[in-house]
Design goal:
This protein is of the alpha/beta class. The chain has 4 helices and 5 strands; from the N terminus they run βαβαβαββα.
């Protein structure tokens, strides 16, 4: 499903995965239609930003701790971290250009 450039985050590896650099995390679920529509965009961004930013996905059904920690109320939600700190959030189905602008702002 996901590009090989998209990392898979879990409750267990999330903190380690977001601690350095710019990291975009797509919170999604299998049953979420907008999440499935966003998946090709996330794959494309992972390829475009390879080497400059990390792009990852976290399934909220399999990993409930992280959405609770960041008070995620709807999906898809994109969380952008810079050096371990939450720097930006985007909720809902967003255009690739809007997500790219959010990433560029923190690179």
């Amino acid at each position: 499903m996901a590009s090989e450039k998209v990392k898979t985050f879990t409750d267990g590896n999330f903190d380690e995965g977001t601690k350095s650099g710019v990291v975009l995390v797509d919170l999604w679920a299998e049953w979420c239609g907008p999440c499935r529509r966003l998946a090709p965009t996330v794959d494309a961004l992972a390829t475009e930003y390879d080497g400059r930013a990390t792009v990852a996905k976290l399934n909220i059904d399999e990993n409930p701790t992280i959405p609770g920690r960041f008070m995620v109320r709807g999906i898809p939600t994109m969380l952008l971290f810079k050096d371990g700190q939450l720097a930006d959030t985007l909720v809902g189905l967003a255009a690739k250009e809007d997500i790219a602008k959010m990433i560029d702002k923190h690179l």
